[in-house]
């Protein structure tokens, strides 16, 4: 069968064919792999012409992945309206010029003040269309180091046909992130605080998705970026950045510097470049949790326990979407991908073959940024550009300042509002960042969450009890 962009294949070789709705409602492929489009669609250069609005860009970028899997007009009718409502500035993802050839793409103006809102609002609207069409109900399980969970709760709370279970690492997300998840009064939302780190939460989610008893009881999926639909919703803002650069008279292809945890955001940028977006390169900027940087720089992908940092949403040591990068860079070699990730799951370490490593390095480089440098960068951004930035953005800006700008502009992604991380930002800039309305409105509402061990049977029991 010809490979096309709206049919989905698994990174581990499962031959069963899925369309966009199926990939969305399954979250992961049945063989434990991640869904990828059968081929990369091409985007017309017209899509990133100066002056394009975000909704129009999103429609052009997403439509080829959806094909006819959803009712005609589903993308336009609700999804795009929803995508751009509830965002504070008129431009959904404004690009700020910081200095010559250095830019910051602000992605935190949505309902939970983090970049996850952009894709999550779209995923919620599209899944509601898919469920209406099929008449089904859906249980979503999602792991979070803070931002994904908050965005998921905002997007899916009180939604018909959907039940949402969010697993966050107990006492390892910021107080604002936790309150965004736990103060929402919605009967269809369950918050589980897991005694462990994000990687434990993600492992539990993957285990739940693979559980036959849950799968046979109804639709069971995830809105982590392991779900292709969630990840694809992050492609449009790369296109929007190039369109905004064009409007500023900058036509050279940019280097994107992406603060990186689960590697979904960076992979969305790589996907945009595969679709034809002019990009000069990608830099994945990680904090001290540097499994990805060690894999790319040293050729050994090895697990370590995650350490706590100020850029808490990036405290990830087993970035799920590295699997998609390996699949793509290996020329879509599902056999090799399966072997490498099964070895990693079993032994916690795997050496990447040299040819694969070269191909990975052609797509993306990686930099690890220390806690001290992160703090210095928050101070520099404030003192030099008058910008108060969150620790994740600071990690990206620090890496961006190390990129050679003689060949073209460098765009650092600014992923969250600094007020979500006041404890780490205030001591550096000398004041509490002014919270946006969406954070002020959290008030002092009561919180609701259950604490569980990082154990598959505890997670299964909690999910079963909630479902009952
Ligand atoms: N940084 C994330 C971790 C999960 O990432 P996702 O993109 O796979 O949902 C978070 O804030 O939860």
UniProtKB/TrEMBL annotation:
Domain Threonine synthase N-terminal positions: 7-76
Source taxon at top rank = Bacteria
UniProt keyword annotation of Methyltransferase present: no
Q: Does the keyword Ribonucleoprotein apply?
A: no
Q: In which pathway does it act?
A: Amino-acid biosynthesis; L-threonine biosynthesis; L-threonine from L-aspartate: step 5/5
The record's annotation in InterPro entries points to: Ser/Thr_deHydtase_PyrdxlP-BS, Thr_synth_N, Thr_synth_N_sf, Thr_synthase-like, Threonine_Synthase, TrpB-like_PALP, TrpB-like_PALP_sf
GO terms assigned for molecular function: threonine synthase activity
The Enzyme Commission number assigned here is 4.2.3.1
Q: Which family does it belong to?
A: Belongs to the threonine synthase family.
Query: What is the protein's given name?
Result: Threonine synthase
Which organism is this entry from?
A: Brevundimonas staleyi
Specify the taxonomic lineage.
Bacteria, Pseudomonadati, Pseudomonadota, Alphaproteobacteria, Caulobacterales
